[in-house]
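Final report, closing paragraph on structural work. Over the funding period we assembled a curated collection of sequence-structure pairs, and we close with a single example.
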Amino acid sequence: MTGKSIHPSKPIGRLSTGVAIVASLLLAVCAAPLMAHMPRAQKHERRHEIDHLEDVWRDALIKGDTTAMGSLLADDYMAITPTGTLQTKDETLANLRSGRLRIASIELTDRKVRFYGATALVTSKADVKATNADGDISGSFRYTRVYVQDAAGVWKIVSWEANRIVAPGEHR
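Its predicted structure, as stored:
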């Protein structure tokens, strides 16, 4: 060896590294909006998947199908019921299994599905005919459900919140 050492910290080395970093950042920032706009067919397919899962959810609730419901809910699922109660996945499945809630029908309308990367946000109106241990709980509700797509491409429900629609002058 000649005793010379390489100094990557010399100004020219730092300038080249800095330019490379800035160029990489600019490329990432400029490419992000382009990647966000997926082809129409892919958007339609994703929307169809979520619509199907919403139907599976409704059917599982009406039939008391804990297996189907369990496959839809993420392990860290959290719900906020129309009464303001928090429910985990285990609590939701236990309530469904108990049969205390009897749902005769759920009509879903005014559904909107929006995508944010691997997250789908669903808002909808549900007209429900149901009873529980306290009596008739039928009514119209607005809800928000959040789906997240895992690494394997499987959509799971991570959150749900529902609120009763109250007519002007009506009490909850």
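Residues 39-164 form a domain with the Nuclear Transport Factor 2; Chain: A, fold (CATH 3.10.450.50). The mean pLDDT is 82. We thank the funder for supporting this effort.
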